[in-house]
Amino acid sequence: MKKEKTEEIRKSVLSKKDLNKCYRRLSLWGETSLNFERMQAVGWCNAIAPALKKIYTKKEDLAAALQRHLQFFNTELMFGNLIFGPSIALEEEKAENPDKVPADLITSFKTGTMGPVAAIGDTIHWGTAWTLGTAFAGALAAKGAVSAVAVLLGLVVGCEIVAYMLFCLGYRTGRISFAQIMKSGLLNEMLDGANILGMFMMGVLSASLVTATPVLKIGKFVLKDMLDGIIPGFLPLLIVFGVYILIRKKQVSTAKIVLLLIGIGILGSAAGVF
Fold first, then answer.
1. Burial class (CB in 10 A: 0-12, 13-18, 19+), 60
2. Cα dist. 136→121, 144, 154, 261 in Å?
C-alpha cells in the first residue's frame, strides 16, 4: 500500500514549487475579488490557475478548467484548503483520465463541501481561535503591554501554518483517494452523492438568501400566506427557478437579470404588491 501511494504521488506533474505558488495565491488574494455574483470564485480561479496551466497542455482544456473554477464558490478559506488541495488533485486525475473523471465531479465536489467546511472553519477559526486570540491581545494592549503585538503575530502565523498543513493534507490524500476510487468503480456513486449534497446546499442557500414578502391580499387572505401554505418558501423557489431558466435556457446575462429583479421590486412596491 505504501509503495502504491508513493508511486501515485510521483506521477504528479506539479512540483512542490507549483503547489506552494497556488497556496500563496489563495492565502494572499483568495478574497480580494469577493463579489455578490460569484463570491470567492475569481480569487479561487486565480489561485489554482498556475496548476491548471501546467496540468493542461491544450488551450481548450485549460479554458474549460478555468471556466469550471469561475463558478460560484464561497467557504472559509483556512479550512477551505481541504477543498483546494483535492480540487488540484482532481484536475490532475481528469487530465490523465479525461473519460473517467467528468467535469461535473469537480464542480459537485466543491459545491457539496463548501458549506460544511465553511461551518467548521467559521466556528473553529473565526468563532474560537481568532476571537479568543484577539481578545487576549486586546486585554494586553489595554494594559500597555507590547506583547500584544507578538500575540497577534503569533495568531496569524499559527493560522497560516494550520492552513498550509490542511492544504498539503488535502492534496496528498486527495491524489491517492481519487485514484483508488477510480479503480474501485465508486466514481459514479461519488458523483451522485456529490450532486445530491450540492443541490441540497444550493437549496439551503436559496431559501436563506432569497426573500420575497408580498403584502397583497385576496379578500381576507394574504398572498404570501397562501403561497407558503402550498410550499413553504414557494415564491423564493419560483424566483430561483425563474432566474435559472433565464440564465440556462434563455442565455440572459446576469446584469440584465439583476436589473429586471430591481425593476420588478420597484414596480411591485409602487403597486403595493411588495
1. exposed
2. 20, 13, 12, 46
Instruction: Retrieve residue 103's grid coordinates.
Output: 467535469
CB 15 within 8 A of CB 54: no
Q: Does the pTM exceed 0.85? A: no
Residue from 29, 48, 31, 50 nearest 40 by CA: 31
**Continuous H helices in the chain:** 2-10, 16-29, 41-55, 59-68, 81-96, 103-121, 131-142, 147-184, 187-209, 223-230, 234-248, 254-270
Residue 182 in grid coordinates: 477510480
What tens digit of pLDDT does each residue of 5-28 get?
444 444 678 999 999 999 999 999
Question: Cβ contacts of residue 5 below 8 Å, gap of 6+?
Answer: 176
Nearest C-alpha neighbor of 89 from the set 166, 183, 12, 1: 12
Structure confidence by residue, pLDDT tens digits, 178-237: 555 555 565 566 556 656 766 776 677 677 778 887 777 777 677 777 777 778 878 888
